[in-house]
Amino acid sequence: MHNIFLSWIEEKRNELLKLGIVVEICNFCKEKCKESPDPAQRIYLDTNFYTGSICVWESGQMDVQIINASTGEQILYDYKDNLDKNIDFNIILKPYIDKIVEGSKKYKKEF
To answer: Is 73 helix (H, G, I), strand (E, B) or coil?
Structure first.
């Protein structure tokens, strides 16, 4: 599951950048997770207003966090489990991506 997520984010990275979202893929996961019974892939998403992280484990768990970059206030936290190998990350992550983009637009209007 975590490798499916990694492939998805590598494919979508430039598209997200066009929306104003900079994606950082945590490469330490590749080395650290080799020995883990439940390897994971984490990414960070940054805009001028919000920052976030998404972590997907091989077991089908996922957590998403979005925080206000200026105040540190947690805007959103969500946890899902039992994700299916046939998951469409475009669909399941759309509300979170929309929230981050919304924050970036809000920032541009305020400043």
So the answer is: coil
CA-angle at 9, arms to 8 and 10, nearest 5°: 95
Q: What is the pLDDT of residue 36?
A: 80
- Mean pLDDT along residues 6-28: 92
Residues 41, 4 contacting (CB under 8 angstroms): no
Say if residues 49 and 27 touch (Cβ distance below 8 Å).
no
Sequence-distant (6+) residues with CB within 8 A of 108 are 48
Q: How far is 89 from 9, CA to CA, in rounded Å?
A: 9
Instruction: State the DSSP string of 87-110.
Output: --HHHHTHHHHHHHHHHHHHHHHH
Q: Is 18 helix (H, G, I), strand (E, B) or coil?
A: helix
**How is the chain split into domains, by residue range?**
2-110
